[in-house]
Amino acid sequence: MTDLSIIIPLFNEDESLPELHAWISRVLADRGLDYEIIFVDDGSTDASWSVISRLAEEDPAHVRGASFRRNYGKSPALNTGFRMARGRVVITMDADLQDSPDEIPELYRMITEDGYDLVSGYKQKRYDPLSKTIPTKLFNATARRVSGIHNLHDFNCGLKAYRSDVVKHIEVYGDMHRYIPYLAKQAGFKRIGEKVVHHQARKYGKTKFGLDRFVNGYLDLVTLWFTGTFGKKPMHLFGLLGSLMFLLGFVAVAAVGILKLYHMHAGHSYILVTDSPYFYISLVLMLLGSQLFLAGFVGELVVRNSPKRNEYDISRTVGDI
Ligand code: UDP
Ligand code: MG
Hints:
Layout: E1 2-10, H1 17-28, E2 35-41, H2 48-58, E3 63-67, H3 74-84, E4 87-92, H4 104-112, E5 118-122, H5 130-147, E6 160-163, H6 164-168, H7 180-186, E7 192-196, H8 212-230, H9 235-265, H10 277-305
The structure holds uridine-5'-diphosphate and magnesium ion.
Residues 94, 96, 98, 202, 207 line the site of magnesium ion (MG).
């Protein structure tokens, strides 16, 4: 089996690729490791693919590649690389030379010797504009809280190392590459570590992500939290919220009615139920409550019909099975 797979997702990075390949080869040259470099071309429109083909010709023992017909995004590119990887250890890095290949040997060692499932890079000193570094701090603080992985400072670092098991058991889609440690944790991999890594300013080309990354990133975090907590039992969330709201509305409307009857019988002056603002608030609550309940039912139907509803990842067994 191959010792190490290095996965590089890329979109229009033709200028960086030869330098990156040379650098990785230099770092790994005398280590006696059987390694492969997997370039996943995410539908580049520049010369990236011809550069990759050339590199594969020059260095057939180490270079593999795949190219999407169109641009799907970094997560699909990573996921494809994960499926292709043959190494016992898998390292991902960006193609733009912002991540340094000099970190590879230490990351490799942390997985093989320190027993980590996943080691994430931490760009403690970043060479990015302020408009990116400040929201990034906020983003990471939120991700730490929601995911419960308190020792990570840089969830979205492109430079990460994994035990092969991890990448074969998680699925990265949409823009979920920002939360791979959370995905790994949800899949049951708990030994998640961090290593401070060097970061450099982009040398060629420009960033592929704008500020919308923070909006989308936040929404994805909510999705992950929801699917992780209630994905297999949506009624537990919607049913609870729905019941509470319905009950509150019901009690309130009953109180309005009972009060009216009481005042009527006692000969006091009273107002009609429909003149009380609480009546309308109660109606809204009961309607919303029923809607939430219905959402729970629909969710349960979706889960019940999902082919994955009873798919579990069994890591060990004993005896006859
Ligand atoms: N990337 C990709 N597909 C995309 C966008 C980006 O494969 O649709 C790659 C990109 O080529 C780079 C990595 O993902 O290798 C990180 O992108 P970038 O450097 O633009 O992000 P930043 O460093 O600004 O966070
Ligand atoms: Mg970059």
